[in-house]
Each structure stands twice: as structure tokens, then as C-alpha cells.
């Protein structure tokens, strides 16, 4: 949901609805503008930022710290020193994991919580097994830290199943691409609606 797809409008709408509004990674200047806009549109609500490590630069981290965001989600790559730096700044740090080994590593780095991603996830994929199958492994590694479940979360029933299985919360991404608040083109939205197959790839970019 980076590159502007999950921008201020979507994050603010989610925050106002009572959930954790999360901004996808974009340029540092746009990121700061988005954080400010979410706070204007959803005053008093928590603000989160997703940082995909292959694209993270010092300015991204500086923006998160200077703006005092509430939560940062980290994905892909070594993060030990960054986790500690963000936590020292008073930011709650989630790390997205797809295996029990990754979950244990994130806990060793000092992560405050885990996002357990299943293979159903529609975006940047680290999940290796179905979400509900992976959840018990993530919970075992978490040591009491909160674990949010991601991958295939699209309905209330999906959320109830995750909570019943022990998740502290859920993460929904692809489902929100179809909202008017998302910065997805109409053509992109139509392709998602009419998609009938899945291709797994490690190709992605940031414009």
C-alpha cells in the first residue's frame, strides 16, 4: 500500500472509524504532509506508518521521530538498531513476519509486537503458510506481545476468526484499495475485482 496508495485520506478514514490509520511509505516530504493531514482529519487518534526497509532512508526515520507518530510497522531486512532507535523515541514498533524464525528474530530485536502475515496477503509477501495456521507459531514466539494477523482479512467474519484464534487484532490492506479514500486508479480497482488468479513475485517498486 506504499507509493501513495494508502495516503492521508485512507489513514484518516480508518482512524476516524476507530482503527489504526496507517500511512504507506512514500517520499519523506509527502510522508510528513500525510502525517499532518491525518492528525488534522482525525484528531486524537493514533497514527501509524509502514516502512518497507528496501526503500527506507534516514529522512523517513527522521520524519517519523520528529512527527512523533504512535506506531511504525517494519518489513523486510535487518532492523535491530532501527527497532531500538524508534522505541527510544517512544514509538511502538511492529515487525511483519512470515515464519517462526522471523518472529523470534523480531522479538530478539526488541519489537513491541508482531504482524503475522499469511500467504493470503495481497501485497508485499513474507507469509509462507495460511494466516490462521501461522498464527499459533507467531503467538508462541511473541512471548505475550500483541500479534496482529494479516492476509486475507476482508470481512467481519475474518476478523472474528482471527480474534478467536488468539490474535490481538487484524491488518487489512487489499480490501481498502477498493475504497474511494484509497489513491488507487479505477482501472487498478477493476483489475482487483475481476482477478481470477494469483501470481507470487518479489518485484515491487516505489515511484
Structure, explained:
By secondary structure, the protein is α/β, with parallel strands linked by helices. Helix content is 40%, strand content 15%. It is built from eight helices and seven strands; from the N terminus they run αβαβαβαβαβαβαβα. It has a seven-stranded parallel beta sheet with strand order 1-2-3-4-5-6-7. Helix 2 (28-41) links the parallel strand 1 (21-23) and strand 2 (47-52). Helix 5 runs parallel beside helix 6. The longest helix has 14 residues, at 28-41.
| Main sheet: strand order | 1-2-3-4-5-6-7
Helix content percent band: 25-40%
Anisotropy-based shape: globular
Number of helices: 8
C-alpha-based Rg, rounded: 16 Å
Q: Order of helices and strands, N to C?
A: HEHEHEHEHEHEHEH
Strand content: 15-25%
CA distance, first residue to last residue:
12 Å
Amino acid at each position: 500500500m506504499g507509493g501513495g496508495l494508502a495516503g492521508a485520506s485512507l489513514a484518516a478514514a480508518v482512524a476516524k472509524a476507530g482503527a489504526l490509520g496507517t500511512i504507506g511509505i512514500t517520499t519523506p516530504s509527502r510522508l510528513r504532509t500525510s502525517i499532518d493531514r491525518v492528525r488534522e482529519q482525525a484528531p486524537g487518534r493514533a497514527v501509524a506508518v509502514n516502512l518497507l526497509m528496501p526503500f527506507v532512508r534516514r529522512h523517513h526515520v527522521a520524519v517519523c521521530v520528529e512527527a512523533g507518530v504512535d506506531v511504525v510497522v517494519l518489513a523486510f531486512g535487518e532492523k535491530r538498531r532501527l527497532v531500538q532507535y524508534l522505541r527510544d523515541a517512544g514509538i511502538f514498533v511492529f515487525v511483519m513476519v512470515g515464519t517462526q524464525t522471523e518472529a523470534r528474530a523480531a522479538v530478539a530485536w526488541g519489537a513491541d509486537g508482531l504482524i503475522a502475515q499469511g500467504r493470503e496477503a495481497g501485497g508485499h509477501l513474507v507469509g509462507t503458510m495460511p494466516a490462521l495456521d501461522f498464527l499459533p507459531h507467531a503467538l508462541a514466539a511473541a512471548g505475550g506481545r500483541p500479534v496482529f494477523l494479516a492476509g486475507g482479512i476482508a470481512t467481519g467474519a475474518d476478523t472474528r476468526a482471527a480474534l478467536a484464534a488468539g490474535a490481538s487484532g487484524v491488518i487489512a490492506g487489499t480490501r481498502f484499495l477498493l475504497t474511494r479514500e484509497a489513491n488507487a486508479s479505477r482501472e487498478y480497482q477493476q483489475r482487483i475485482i475481476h482477478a481470477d488468479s494469483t501470481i507470487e513475485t518479489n518485484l515491487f517498486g516505489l515511484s
